[in-house]
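Slide 14.
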Amino acid sequence: MRFFNKTMLWLIIVSVAVLMTVLGAVGEEVEAEVVQTPVDAVAHQAMMAAPTPAPPSPVEPTKVVEEEVISSQDEIYEEWNNWCEPLEYENQCKTDDDCKEIVHAVQRPLRCVAPWWREKGSDLKLCAPGFSGKVERRWRRARLRELIGQQYFDEPQRCSDWSWEVLLSKKGNPYKFERQWENGKPVHKQHWRCGGQWRQAEELTKFLWLIYKRETSARPWKRHRLNPDKAANERAYVKQAKRYGWIVETKCVGKKKRCRSHDRYITDTYPDPEAKEQNPHYGNRYRWAFGNGGLGQNTALWAASWDTMAPPEILCLEPVQFETYLRNARSIVKKLNGGIDCDGDLKKDYWDKAPTWAVVHRGASGGKVCPPKNRASTERYRKLFNGRAKSLGLNPEKVVTLEMLGKPIPKEGQNARLQELLTILDEKLPAPFEQ
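Slide 15: predicted structure.
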């Protein structure tokens, strides 16, 4: 037993010695291989003489610059600053002579007028365009009639061959209707007796002129600055932000369990990162704070009907304001003819009457197509509309069809058509006053 233990011990010692010898040989072989690696002496000296490179500087985080996304059609909208009246009138005056040398944004003569918002006892007056006179209103109505004849109806040649020069009176007053007399009674000229689409064009002219004159006295460049208009435009600016590629954050005034839209105020406005395009004009909310155009349209609601990338001042152009209104009127006629679920019972309800001029006006202007809850108030406004319509020779209870609203301007290529219509109007019907 003792001999066996000594033998095992010697075997272990010998094994360890042999293992150490083998490991030492392998280490010397590796060291010899490293030392024997060929090195170019010239390159080695040049490498040693080269200065030690500085340690790399920490990489600065890349700054993401949010570029303003501009629509491909933005070139057409470069002249937006000349379409509406200025946001603020800053030129004070005492007489009309002080305003003669001031150039107005809409190229219209200015007068020295008292602003409606001035305080009592103040003598503040500013250079601003006043209400349109008879000559200008006749000129605006002639432009409306020419626009309808150029775009919305294919009139027979015998009806569209005449020009508005026949409306010049013997005294030279522009755009004054002359009348012929037979047996002591006035009769219209022959071109007023044309039927078919000419008659439909006359009815559409009267319908749009009724709204045009009632809202702004036929001033297409007008901004609507009254407090109810500003409040309605601000609410629409918040609700319609997604359509223009923006996000508008609001906060409730005070602590209320139910915060309605008119109890909120805007805290922040920024582009929507998920939107494909952002309207480059939507960030300046002051430009969207007023209603624009001759029809008193809510800017954020109606501008998108033309183009979500358009500036808010687009509604001050006559073809745009009338076309956007007619697009809404056509949708109202389709809804009323097809039926609408007004009471939520999943069954289509039909209007108690066919879509007449009065019903279309109520739906297109107010967006309400279901039977009203407050019928007394609705009937009162309906009576006022009927009186104004009859004074122009328009039957307010006549049924309206899509053909009576004319051919729409196609969405594709609408800006090119807009430029064409503006050129035609300016060439055929120049302004009756000095520009």
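Speaker note: The longest helix spans residues 2-35.
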